[in-house]
From TrEMBL:
Gene Ontology terms: cellular component: mitochondrial inner membrane
Molecular function as annotated in GO: NADH dehydrogenase (ubiquinone) activity
Keywords for the protein's UniProt record, in alphabetical order: Electron transport, Membrane, Mitochondrion, Mitochondrion inner membrane, NAD, Respiratory chain, Translocase, Transmembrane, Transmembrane helix, Transport, Ubiquinone
UniProt catalytic activity: a ubiquinone + NADH + 5 H(+)(in) = a ubiquinol + NAD(+) + 4 H(+)(out)
Primary site of residence: mitochondrion
Enzyme Commission number: 7.1.1.2
Domain of life (superkingdom): Eukaryota
InterPro entries xref list: Complex_I_Subunit_2, NADH_DH_su2_C, NADH_UbQ_OxRdtase_chain2, ND/Mrp_TM
PANTHER family linked to this entry: NADH-UBIQUINONE OXIDOREDUCTASE CHAIN 2
All copies of domain NADH:quinone oxidoreductase/Mrp antiporter transmembrane, residue ranges: 13-276
Subcellular location: Mitochondrion inner membrane
Entry protein name: NADH-ubiquinone oxidoreductase chain 2
């Protein structure tokens, strides 16, 4: 309830103090969920998260106070002072985990459970993204473009040598944040569409991994023996998150590249499209491990399919939407 309250306060406020209050409520609400397992890694993750978010919140408050000092405005959309804009970009980048302020995010996600990791990767990123969208006319285009390209590059490079699934999804999140940020100044609605589709696909993958108890590549190799249909659809959901054309994840990347080309930013569009190939490589590796690879094991692994395991309806619905939403895109455009 506190998570929903903090998110609602932040996205519906027009005063900086209320937005800051909502962010603080969010931070305080997620910390018990991170440290719930009473494991040293979980406590370390909660401490890192608290220190990072507290520093970012202090920067955001300092940014709004500086703007109010020079302009007399506490309105979120009236952020006009250059120093305040720079401080706000830094604060929101720390909260989101944009490069070069990304170091905390993979460690915190690795120390959390799958359900808490899902909240960290989706719901907790919504209030800072809303603040970015509200203040987008005032932000520096060069700085945002640089950070976006760096995030796409780093998310791809760092995900290549990971074996822990949560860390791979953390670097995937950093890479997707780069795509959201690069189009923010030119089409904020497209940023929100990308964020919503990313949340849909990530939720499907996290819930499927939680159901099959997959934590690393080794356990992913035996996932097909537990729930074979879920392993097959998980592969398609991973390829959708990678952005392969017939699947849902291709829609935001297609629209972003189209919009960047319209803005005469073809070199930037080409660069970020090529950088997404890095992410495609480790998504393909995950999909390969989930469906094709057979690890050297005893025959006990082959009998797991006989156990009675049920897949809940929300998981199947989310996976279906994360795979098959691209044919519905003309209807989405018609409504917008």
């Amino acid at each position: 309830m506190s998570l929903l309250l903090g998110t609602t306060i932040t996205i519906s406020s027009n005063h900086w103090m209320m937005a800051w209050t909502g962010l603080e409520i969010n931070t305080l609400a997620i910390i018990p969920l991170i440290s719930k397992s009473h494991h040293p890694r979980a406590i370390e993750a909660a401490t890192k998260y608290f220190l990072t978010q507290a520093a970012a919140s202090a920067l955001l408050l300092f940014s709004s106070m500086t703007n109010a000092w020079f302009t007399g405005q506490w309105d979120i959309t009236q952020l006009t002072h250059p120093t305040s804009c720079l401080l706000l970009t830094t604060a929101v980048s720390i909260k989101l985990g944009l490069t070069p302020f990304h170091f905390w995010f993979p460690e915190v996600l690795q120390g959390s459970s799958m359900t808490t990791g899902l909240l960290l990767a989706t719901l907790m990123k919504f209030p800072p993204t809303a603040l970015l969208v509200l203040t987008s006319p005032s932000l520096n285009p060069t700085l945002l473009t640089t950070m976006a390209i760096a995030s796409a590059a780093l998310g791809g490079w760092m995900g290549l040598n990971q074996t822990q699934v949560r860390k791979i999804l953390a670097f995937s999140s950093i890479s997707h944040l780069g795509w959201m940020t690069i189009i923010l100044l030119y089409n904020p609605k497209l940023t929100l569409l990308t964020f919503y589709l990313y949340c849909l696909m990530t939720s499907a993958i996290f819930l499927a991994l939680n159901t099959t108890k997959i934590t690393n590549l080794a356990t992913m190799m035996t996932a097909w023996t537990k729930i074979p249909p879920l392993a097959a659809t998980l592969m398609l959901a991973l390829l959708s998150l990678a952005g392969l054309p017939p699947l849902t994840g291709f829609l935001p990347k297609w629209l972003i590249i189209q919009e960047l080309t319209k803005q005469e930013m073809t070199p930037v569009a080409t660069t970020i499209a090529l950088l997404s190939l890095l992410g495609l490589f480790f998504y393909l590796r995950l999909a390969y491990c989930a469906t094709i690879t057979l690890p050297p094991n005893s025959s006990n692994h082959m009998k797991q399919w006989q156990t009675n395991k049920s897949v809940r309806i929300p998981i199947t619905t989310l996976i279906f939407l994360s795979i098959m939403l691209l044919p519905l895109s003309p209807m989405i455009f018609a409504t917008t």
